[in-house]
Amino acid sequence: MVQKIKILITDAGYKHTLGAVRSLGKAGFFVIAMASNKKAQSFFSRFCNEKLICPDPRNEGQFIQFLIDYLEKNRVDVLIPVGYLTTVTISKHKEELLPFVKIPIVDYGSMQIACNKEKTMQLAHSLNIPSPKGYSSITDIDEFPIVAKGIYESGQIKYIKSFENLKHLDLNNYILQEYIQGEGYGFYALYNHGTIRAFFMHKRVREFPITGGASTCAESIFDDELKKVGLELLRPLRWHGVAMVEFKKDARDGKFKLIEINPKFWGSLDLAITSGVNFPKLLVEMALNGDVEPVFNYNTNIKFRWPFPDDMLHLFANPKSIWEILWECFDKNSRSNLWPDDFLPNILQMYDTCIIIVSQIMRGNLWYPHGNPKVRK
Prior knowledge:
Blueprint: E1 6-9, H1 15-26, E2 30-35, E3 50-53, H2 60-73, E4 78-80, H3 84-92, H4 94-97, H5 108-114, H6 117-126, E5 134-135, E6 146-150, E7 157-160, E8 174-178, E9 182-192, E10 195-208, E11 214-221, H7 224-234, E12 241-250, E13 256-262, H8 269-275, H9 279-289, E14 303-305, H10 307-317, H11 322-328, E15 334-336, H12 344-363
Parallel strand pairs: 1-2, 1-4, 2-3, 14-15
Antiparallel strand pairs: 5-8, 6-7, 6-8, 9-10, 9-12, 10-11, 11-14, 12-13
């Protein structure tokens, strides 16, 4: 009897981990989902063959030792990190783990550039890739609003509208940039030691927070300029594995301005899979076989929605979007992560949605959790 290939995938609580678990399970792999929370949504998927409770990855030493102990005792063919902390930590300790499992992620040197926004922007400037104007000190600021971004990880954003707002901000942990008004775009890629093997692009349709955040609905697109700047940024890093490069299309001049590199799997992964670029499956096959056939074509004009809690949060914050959301329910080019044949994770999502919305309203964070930037006229 031929044994199934075993895949260990981290961060089972994330929506894109669920997308990856479903994709890999449908492809016939034995999927082990791991998380520090026993109620992680991917644990409830019928495509999850084994649940693994691990230490919080913020406890780096405990997390890595747990992985080593598990991999020594259990056969695993490929380890796929999904979340930011797990991806960076596993990249840092990759050499310790490689004797036990294949890990298709970039070396820590390149990872440090991609996960540090200061270093990412320095790389972009050296390549003449457009990016928001940065301020090295408060005295350089010549207009408001500006954006304060945490140097590490996504989502640590504050919109600053005056010098007064800067008083309580630890500037050692943030970079300051001009506020770019425009639509959000993403370039996604799979690399094999610096060689592009697959790519995909999307445009954000809706997001939460409504001032700028993760996609709650996105659409597959193709844009030559977006492809060009995305490839150009990742090329000198000799990337290995998956990555996302996030841009905003500046409403003032129509140019794509770099926001950040996301050195891991991204929240809108389901859209890429649905559009014909199955990144999780390609990543596993590349790790197992050394390479894969390139995938450079995919379906465009496909919309993908994440109803719970993402699109519901957007709807509560922006009730006018109800008509757009209802229309998409009948659009043949619109999809969602609600799977009738794998509905238990979606039930958990619905339950969590109620808790999250009530919590956000009580804290006053539903509408502008990062602040409300002044919109340029």
